[in-house]
Amino acid sequence: MNRKYLIDIANSAILEELQQKVLIDKRELLSRHPELRKKGAVFVTLELDKNLRGCIGSLTAHRTLLDDIVSNAKAAAFQDTRFRQLTQREFDYDGFTIEISLLSEPKRLHYRDADDLYKKIRPNIDGVVLQKDRYRGTYLPQVWEQLPRPDKFFASLCQKAGMRPNCLDFHPEIYTYKVEKIKE
User: Could you give phi then psi for residue 178, rounded to 5 degrees?
Assistant: First the structure.
């Protein structure tokens, strides 16, 4: 199914903030694309010349797909604390791209130890949520491209979640999900 219109929605959401005017007609979109009414979870990833420029998303479906795309597109552009707010100049630049990842519902993955986890995990397919007490982090499946070895992937994810790189020794909960990627 061609879902390029989801990229158009994300583009319009960002442009709304940059131009401070309403550009998205939700009623019209919902009548043309009723699937946008369903609850959905997405991550919106922004890149400039293939370098990360912002990435914000939802792990679970808690609002309509339309609202999740709009909210996360704006958040990736203007609220990702790793970056300054996106400018009109960056938005207009030819090397600026938007990718939307539609997430499946995360499923708990049971494992005995790190070696068992490495055997069960599917690099380049599984997105991963790691959680222990108040600490939590996730990597989309696309992150496997930069961290293809499971030991390095999980050490980095542990750190992203605010824990030590060896956090698997303390048996955090692991959830996996798949994504459908839509890119400009």
Answer: -110, 160
Instruction: Over range 107-122, report the average pLDDT.
Output: 97
Burial 8-22 (b: 16+ CB within 10 A, else e): ebbbbbbbbbbeeee
Q: What's the rounded Cα separation, in Å, for the pair 105 and 97? A: 26
pLDDT higher than 70, residue 131: yes
Cβ(100)–Cβ(7) below 8 Å: yes
In this structure, what is the dihedral angle of CA atoms 156, 159, 163, 169, given to the nearest 10 degrees? Answer: 10
* Cβ atoms of residues 36 and 30 within 8 Å: yes
**What is the distance between the alpha carbons of residues 43 and 177, in angstroms, rounded to a whole number?**
12
From CA 94, how far away is CA 91, in angstroms rounded? 8
> What would the mean pLDDT of 142-146 be, rounded to a whole number?
95
Look at residues 40, 97, 89, 94 and name the one whose alpha carbon lies nearest to residue 69.
40
Residues 168 and 154 sit within 8 Å (Cβ to Cβ): yes
N residues, the chain: 184
The CA-atom distances, in angstroms, between 120 and each of 66, 95, 114, 156 are: 33, 37, 10, 18
Check residues 66 and 1 and name the one with the higher pLDDT: 66
